[in-house]
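Residues pack. Consider this:
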Amino acid sequence: MAGKIIAPIAEMNARDDLLVIAAMVANGTRVLDVGCGDGSLLRLLADQKQVDARGIEISQRGVNDCVSKGLSVIQGDADTDLIDYPANAFDYVILSQTIQATRNPKKVLEQMLRIGSRAIISFPNFGHWRIRSQLVLKGRMPVTDNLSYAWYETPNIHFCTIRDFVALADEVEANIEKAIALDSRGYPVRLNAPWWVWNLFGEQAVFLLSK
C-alpha cells in the first residue's frame, strides 16, 4: 500500500480528497470548483498552485464564506447553471463530494467535460465493506464518516460505487487519466489493484477525467 499523501503544515486540516485533488492540478491553470462550499479547496489551490480560481456554490452561506476569503465565487446550481459556461473555458472543473447530491449526475459530468479540458471528481464509495456490512447485519441505511446523514435527511440522492462511476465515465466516453481510492485513514488503496478491491476497501475515490 502506498504511503499517505503528505501536505505542508498549512494544509494538514484539509480533507484527504482535497489534498489528492490539489496534487492533480497543474500550476497556473484556470480552475472552476463546482459546489465549492466554504472555498477551502479554492483557497488551497490559489495559495499553493497559483491558479485562476473560480467557484460556483448553491448556498448563500457558502458564497459568503468564499467571498470573505477573497475568492471569486458566484451562487449557482450545478444541475442548471453549468450550461451557461462556454466550452473549454477552464483547464480543470472540479466537483468534490457533490456528484451524489446532484439531480442528474450524468448531465453534470457531461457539462464539466464540455467546459473544462479535464474534470476531477471525488465521491464517497457506497460499495465500501463497512457500508455493505451495515446493510447486511443491521438491515438499515448506513451512517459513516463520509455518509454522515440519516436516510430521511440526507442530501445524497444518487449513491454510487466506484464501479458505478467507472461505468458512467465509459458511458460519457471520458478517459480516466488517473484514479485514486482512499481507505478510511486517508491512505491510497493499492494503485494497481483491480476495481473490485478498490470498490471493497476504498471509502472514497478521486478521478481525473478528460474527453
